[in-house]
Design goal:
Layout (H helix, E strand, L loop, with lengths): L2 H23 L9 H17 L3 H12 L7 H14 L4 H15 L6 H13 L8 H15 L9 H10 L5 H16 L7 H10 L1
Length: 206
């Protein structure tokens, strides 16, 4: 599957998932809501669901927001989706998918793009081999690395790839994780809808 084909497939899945969730939240007059009202509804949903520790529902709302390309806060929505997926026990393929989509949004030439690919790879490697989502997540990681290397056909040798990883410290979590988290902070700024205190507290108790 080519990179363009994968992007189209991921986009289609996201749009369906987000729109179905939006429909569940709205009443019979939902179609009369303005785009601004729809946005505010979903932002409030993110706040309420994260406070209630309903991670899947919060991510569904963020998926919807992440697909509203005409809204100036869409980058914030994509960054918060990636942050929440990284912090909560969701399928690893969702984690890699959100990181991949964010990387594509910023473009593969963004300085943090290789770090995002390495964080996705790190998340996959910390899951059990029998995780049913692992093969799809591994595919996401492969595509992310190829995109960063401008190598859509996967022609880079193992030696050249490992050299690139080592030279850029992409095998050192203490280096690449802070890079990604800093980018997420910059994209969101002070407008967090995710209740991060609740998420962090839940992680501490886990």
């Amino acid at each position: 599957m080519s990179l363009d084909e994968l992007n189209k497939q991921l986009s289609a899945i996201n749009v369906i998932q987000g729109n179905e969730f939006r429909a569940k939240l709205q009443d019979d007059d939902g179609d009369d809501m303005t785009p601004e009202e729809n946005w505010d509804l979903m932002v409030n949903s993110v706040r309420q669901f994260t406070r209630a520790k309903k991670w899947d529902e919060a991510l569904d709302a963020l998926v919807y927001l992440s697909n509203q390309d005409n809204n100036p806060l869409v980058f914030s929505a994509r960054a918060q989706a990636a942050w929440l997926a990284l912090k909560t026990p969701v399928p690893v393929s969702q984690v890699t998918q959100f990181l991949y989509k964010l990387m594509i949004t910023l473009t593969a030439t963004h300085p943090a793009a290789p770090a995002m690919a390495s964080l996705a790879n790190f998340m996959v490697n910390n899951r059990k081999d029998e995780d049913p989502d692992r093969p799809l997540a591994e595919f996401h990681v492969q595509q992310m690395y190829q995109h960063c290397l401008d190598d859509p056909n996967g022609e880079a040798t193992t030696e050249s790839f490992q050299k690139w990883v080592t030279e850029n410290q992409l095998d050192q979590p203490d280096y690449f994780i802070p890079i990604v988290m800093e980018v997420l902070e910059e994209l969101v700024g002070d407008s967090w809808w995710v209740d991060r205190a609740t998420v962090e507290a839940d992680m501490t108790q886990a």
